[in-house]
């Protein structure tokens, strides 16, 4: 009876020229349009940041060996001590090497005297030849003797230089500022080049940190105006979180990016540099490295949950003005704080579904509301 009365009322309205009223989905017996939340796409200002596990690596590390043989007379350091470049670390007995220097100096002095005599003979013989008082062969012999004397002097200069170098090697010095390790030999021991490592010197200030970054992510950071690996224009700042959870109080920069992908990983080795004057950062320690762009960029981002994926690729579901759902294929970039950058496929001002995706299908109509609107 109720349905028949509604038809009678509708016929009366048509007879008087009134347009028919819309019949709701519920009255027509169909399901109501599913309710979804949407977000209007827009570009926002981003300082992109991403974190990786990195490993600290000494700026320099060398094994110090003896370059000459002799008994070790002095050790001038304590293990773990900070040393400066050219600080003496060891002294090896010098007696034999000082004697070699004196011997070389004496031999050189004698050779210089012989050369002076040969030069005098040459000059005298030249005069005699000019006067016709001696044969040319005598002059030729004098010239040859002077040449021999010159050669002897040069040779003995080399012998003296070598002796002085070896004497200098008895003073074993630090080649750079660093932290000295444990000595492997004791004072009084006989050392030689065959002894091997005497001690290890490590430079920790500055210090490197190495990390592996996916090639795809690296391309994002090296595209456009955001370049890394250039000492003259650091557009990405690095920060460290230490193993105890504290944040290191100094920032760093990237100084090196490998030119090839690591086999089997599709990652690229990236190296950063940090100042470490207090030696708080230790060689070999694992840390969390955060990369953040100094220069903010304008980018279109959407919530991570808005992205759907299938065999074709990534896409979002958009809602038109009449409430119809459609698919929009997109390409995605970096993630940050629960959102993902859209690099292509989506423009500003599009309503995309962020909640209720499991209730909709492409082509159907939905009851869309912006997230945060009053639903009462």
Explain what you see.
The protein is of the alpha+beta class and 376 residues long. It folds into 3 domains: 84 residues, Beta Barrel (conserved putative lor/sdh protein from methanococcus maripaludis s2 fold), CATH 2.40.420.20; 105 residues, Elongation Factor Tu (Ef-tu), domain 3 (Beta Barrel); 121 residues. Strands 3, 5, 8, 10, 11, 12, 13 and 14 form an 8-stranded antiparallel sheet that branches. α2 runs antiparallel to α3. The longest helix has 37 residues. It is elongated and about 135 Å long. The two termini are 34 Å apart. The N terminus is likely disordered.
Rg over alpha carbons: 42 Å
The number of domains is 3
SSE order:
HEEEEEEHHEEEEHEEEEEEEEEEEE
Largest sheet: 8 strands, antiparallel
Shape: elongated
Strand content: 35-45%
- What is the structural class? alpha+beta
Q: Gap between N and C termini, in Å?
A: 34 Å
The total count of strands amounts to 22
Could you estimate the helical fraction of the residues in percent? 10-25%
Low-confidence stretches: 1-28
How many helical stretches? 4
Mean pLDDT: 86
Can you lay out the helices and strands and say which pair or pack?
Elements: H1 2-15, E1 35-40, E2 43-46, E3 49-65, E4 70-75, E5 82-83, E6 88-92, H2 95-131, H3 136-169, E7 171-173, E8 178-180, E9 190-191, E10 197-214, H4 215-222, E11 236-241, E12 253-257, E13 267-274, E14 286-293, E15 297-303, E16 308-309, E17 314-319, E18 325-329, E19 331-336, E20 339-344, E21 351-355, E22 367-370
Helix pairs in contact: 2-3
Short account of what is shown:
The chain is α+β, with helices and mostly antiparallel strands and 376 residues long. Helix content is 25%, strand content 36%. It has four helices and 22 strands.
């Amino acid at each position: 009876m109720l349905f028949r009365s509604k038809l009678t009322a509708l016929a009366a309205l048509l007879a008087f020229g009134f347009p028919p009223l819309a019949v709701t989905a519920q009255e027509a017996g169909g399901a109501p349009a599913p309710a979804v939340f949407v977000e209007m796409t827009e570009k926002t200002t981003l300082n992109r940041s991403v974190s990786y596990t990195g490993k600290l690596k000494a700026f320099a590390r060398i094994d110090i060996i003896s370059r000459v043989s002799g008994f070790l007379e002095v050790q001038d350091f304590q293990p773990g001590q900070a040393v400066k470049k050219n600080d003496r670390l060891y002294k090896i007995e010098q007696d034999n090497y000082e004697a070699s220097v004196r011997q070389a100096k004496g031999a050189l002095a004698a050779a210089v005297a012989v050369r002076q005599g040969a030069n005098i003979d040459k000059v005298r013989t030249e005069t005699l030849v000019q006067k016709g008082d001696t044969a040319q062969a005598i002059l030729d012999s004098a010239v040859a003797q002077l040449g021999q004397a010159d050669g002897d002097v040069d040779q003995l200069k080399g012998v003296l230089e070598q002796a002085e170098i070896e004497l200098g090697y008895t003073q074993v010095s630090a080649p750079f500022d660093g932290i000295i390790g444990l000595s492997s030999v004791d004072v009084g021991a006989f050392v030689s080049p065959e002894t091997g490592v005497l001690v290890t010197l490590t430079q920790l200030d500055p210090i490197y940190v190495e990390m592996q970054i996916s090639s795809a992510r690296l391309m994002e950071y090296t595209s456009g105006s955001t370049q890394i690996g250039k000492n003259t224009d650091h557009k990405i700042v690095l920060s460290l979180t230490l193993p105890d959870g504290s944040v290191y109080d100094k920032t760093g920069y990237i100084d090196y990016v490998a030119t090839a992908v690591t086999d089997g990983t599709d990652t690229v080795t990236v190296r950063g540099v940090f100042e470490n004057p207090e030696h708080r950062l230790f060689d070999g320690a694992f840390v969390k490295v955060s990369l953040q762009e100094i220069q903010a960029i304008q980018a279109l981002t959407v919530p991570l949950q808005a992205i759907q994926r299938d065999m074709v690729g990534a896409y979002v579901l958009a809602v038109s003005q009449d409430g119809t759902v459609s698919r929009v294929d997109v390409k995605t970039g970096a993630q940050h704080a629960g959102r993902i950058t859209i690099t292509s496929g989506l423009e500003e001002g599009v309503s995309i579904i962020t909640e209720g995706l499991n209730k909709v299908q492409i082509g159907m109509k939905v009851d869309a509301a912006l997230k945060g609107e009053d639903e009462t």
